[in-house]
Design goal:
The chain has 17 helices and no strands. The chain has about 400 residues and is mainly alpha-helical. It has a single domain, classed as Growth Hormone, Chain: A. Pfam families: MFS_3.
Length: about 400
């Protein structure tokens, strides 16, 4: 009974706020659409090319806009209307997904179309990530921020579980085009609801030099020892560990001689683990130190991906990916909450922009490099190399964190 009460307090309570409830429901549908497209475009690209280099390029181009624009987006979050930025991001995403759907329906889709439109979707994500987190803060306030972030993370990871399964059904029954059409339509409820949300804290829009504001945010984060340490750990995890998801289609064929069904099965297992991780983070995880949980989860994820690189059994791989999803979401969820708890309100947008840059912006560099290496050494060997290097980074940062604690 106590666990159910904990679930209600840590996850369900933010839904009592009308504005957050509407935003959450619309955002949940959009997240589901995004994961349907992510799964479908990875498999379609690999089906067209048979190349892990192209998979790495897809991950790179999808995240490269975040490398370019997430820091400026964080500055804009502290200066401009969050509503207008969020609506613009939704409309950009809807346009890119609809264009890919039309090309696919017409039988004209080529690898360069997928890569180009993935870059366009990346622009939408780069605008959305720091603004959305600051937007949630303004809706619910500081007291309920952790619970609201837990609930949003739960929706994200439920989409990670359901999205690949839905994509697998759509790909097998209706075709790739319907996956992209579903994503395009899923953006519209969010764009329609945002203008009607009354913010709890309507901050005045700031004026001033945007480059100076960006510099102030960078100096603030780098001088703050604990924020800097967490951001460096996120860099190591994003570049060295997270590319396993991009290389998964190649691993399915190389290690398990599988196809689309096996790929979506493993993706769904990973998403189910992430869903469990989000539930844990929003309930029992709240009683564990953020720093300890972040380093424990990062160390565990390293061992799991290393084990995946040696596995030749599909069901063992599913179990490893299930656990990997659990620890992956606890890294990001706790790092997000911890960084926000440390930063001042006037720096929130810029710090979140930097967090987005470390988490998602540097991901393309790892994806591109590891995809290129996998084409030459094979996916399992590449995963071992990336995991060992990431593990060394995590170990060094963990030891430094204990020394400075």
């Amino acid at each position: 009974m106590a666990l159910w009460l904990e679930l209600a307090q840590g996850v369900i309570l933010p839904l009592k706020k009308k504005e957050f409830r509407y935003f959450f429901l619309a955002q949940s549908l959009s997240l589901l659409g995004r994961w349907v497209q992510t799964t479908a475009q990875r498999w379609l690209l690999y089906d067209l090319t048979g190349s892990t280099t192209y998979l790495g390029l897809l991950g790179a181009l999808g995240s490269f806009p975040i490398l370019l624009f997430s820091l400026p987006a964080g500055v804009l979050t502290d200066h401009l209307s969050k509503k207008k930025i969020l609506v613009s991001a939704q409309l950009i995403g809807a346009f890119m997904a609809m264009l890919l759907a039309l090309l696919t329906f017409a039988g004209l889709v080529r690898p360069w179309h997928i890569l180009t439109l993935a870059f366009g979707l990346g622009i939408a994500v780069s605008l959305e990530f720091p603004v959305r987190n600051a937007f949630i803060y303004e809706i619910v306030g500081k007291q309920d921020l952790i619970s609201a972030l837990s609930l949003h993370s739960l929706a994200f990871n439920l989409s990670r579980f359901l999205g690949p399964a839905l994509a697998g059904w759509l790909m097998g029954s209706l075709g790739f085009g319907f996956c992209f059409l579903f994503n395009a339509l899923s953006y519209l409820p969010v764009a329609g609801i945002i203008p009607f949300i009354e913010l709890k804290e309507n901050q005045k829009q700031k004026s001033g030099n945007l480059l100076l504001s960006l510099k102030e945010g960078l100096i603030y984060a780098l001088r703050h020892t604990r924020i800097r340490g967490i951001l460096l750990l996120i860099v190591g995890v994003s570049v060295g560990l997270f590319p396993y998801a991009i290389l998964l289609p190649a691993l399915v064929r190389e290690a398990y001689q599988g196809g689309g069904r096996e790929f979506t099965f493993l993706m769904s297992a990973n998403g189910l683990g992430a869903l469990a991780g989000a539930l844990f983070a929003g309930t029992l995880g709240r009683y564990i130190s953020h720093r300890k949980l972040i380093y424990l989860a990062a160390s565990s994820l390293t061992l799991l991906i290393l084990g995946l690189s040696f596995s030749r059994n599909l069901y063992l791989a599913a179990g490893l990916l299930l656990a990997a999803g659990f620890f992956m979401v606890n890294i990001i969820m706790n790092a997000n909450a911890y960084v926000q708890s440390l930063c001042e309100d006037e720096m929130r947008g810029r710090v979140l922009g930097l967090f987005s840059w470390c988490f998602l912006g540097l991901f393309p560099l790892g994806s591109l490099f590891w995809g290129f290496l996998a084409q030459r050494l094979g996916t399992p060997v590449t995963l071992r190399i990336s995991t060992i290097l990431a593990g060394l980074v995590i170990l060094i940062l963990g030891l430094r964190g204990l020394k400075n604690a």
